[in-house]
Amino acid sequence: MEERWFDVAGDGGVRLRARQIAGASNDAPAILLHHGLASSQRIWDLMLPGLARRFRVITYDARGHGLSAKPSSGYGFDHVTGDALAVIRAARLRRPVVVGHSWGADVALALAADRPHAVGGAVLVDGGVFRMRSSFATWVEAKRQLAPPQLAGTPLVAFRAELARWSPVPLTPEVEGIFLSLMRVDGQGRIHPRLARANHFRILRAIWDRDSVALHSQLRVPTLAILAHGSAEGAMFDAAKRETVQRLKAAGSPATFVWVEGIHDLPLQQPELLVRRIARFAASAVR
Fold this sequence. Notes:
This protein is of the alpha/beta class. The chain contains 12 helices and 10 strands. The chain has 2 domains: 3-136 and 197-285, 3-Layer(aba) Sandwich (Rossmann fold), CATH 3.40.50.1820; 149-194, no CATH class. It is globular and about 50 Å long.
């Protein structure tokens, strides 16, 4: 599978690292993939072979993540949706289907609601239906509960040993590579998360301030939400997700909601299923 890596000047000129996956013809329908918070574009790696057989696929590291630049500001949704639009323009995509995971689903939802002429549809993978304020009484509580682990300075050998213990899926070499893409290794063999802790909190605050539920009323393009349920690690959120979906349906959200048994990181656990769901949706959305 061939990849072409390239840089994009995002909103405000921020450098974004992107890639195009070769496979489908240049006139094939386009898909733009946006990863979640504290992740990287590598989370889609297991899905790329299947998607590339049908689509022109573009992925990128969001600002602050992966191989993209890491400014200390600009993490609100106006800036990150501006980044996505810059990638769409640079890759010369015509109204792509935007697929987002977790926080990336919030970005995809914002694009679909605020910039419907730029996208042909949106797929929200276990995200885009939450309202953080419904789960936490205050921002201080949300910040405390959702703070990232303190991993900076951990020896790489120790981190790799721990991966096998807490990885939510079997730790194949490809999956290990996805996890390692989240870290920078210094000259002493110690890891440092590529997303700075301060930027992590800036994104969380943007999510706290954003009412994703209200955006559903603005949707004018086909939208599919693929939501995980039934896993031990996500049990505490299942009830909240179902309640929110019922509220969205009652309010007339035009999105289609489907439930998939699995963990939050569906791109790692259920890559083939996601490819099938996305392909089926995109085939109808781009007509």
